[in-house]
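Example 3.
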Amino acid sequence: NAGVMQNPRHLVRRRGQEARLRCSPMKGHSHVYWYRQLPEEGLKFMVYLQKENIIDESGMPKERFSAEFPKEGPSILRIQQVVRGDSAAYFCASSPLRDSVMAYFGSGTRLTVV
Amino acid sequence: KNEVEQSPQNLTAQEGEFITINCSYSVGISALHWLQQHPGGGIVSLFMLSSGKKKHGRLIATINIQEKHSSLHITASHPRDSAVYICAVISNTDKLIFGTGTRLQVFP
């Protein structure tokens, strides 16, 4: 019974490249949340998705960042034209219901932009 | 000022000591969570509270809704408890707001 799976665990990109971060929620979970943890800072909400819908993207930077959660397959957080400031740990969480969002976190993807 | 404040930011303890980490918040909430983030980076949910007190093994979490304050206690601390402990609240507007964490190191 796999938990929330994120891959890759570590991702290195050069400035200007694209970064794709994947999150497979727990089986039966249709709610996915993405969070970013900048160095020496707390976790910050980015986006909340249900299958095929973006419910709340109020924490997403206006440019270069996008997220999707297709009917089939993992949720994808995509960062285009990465910059050094995008270096952070990106966490995904899933839940069957919104108010149990904290129960299941992935191990995170550490993005390093060089 | 952050909406969720934790103290202390850093904490060191000797094995066996009783540890308390505090969390204060300034928004209306429906629930509060305590999370543990290990050096490898993974995050584990420890407790979700909306009132009172919960206990799991050596961990105890309490919340006082009127005072907008929660505490996480670790009894008989052990080096494997070394981690970052994060307080997070679900606001009445359904936003998840995190504290910046308390870094705990327990030495043998």
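Chain A touches chain B at residues 33, 35, 41-45, 89, 91, 98-108, 110 (CB under 8 Å). The two ends of chain A are 36 Å apart (CA to CA).
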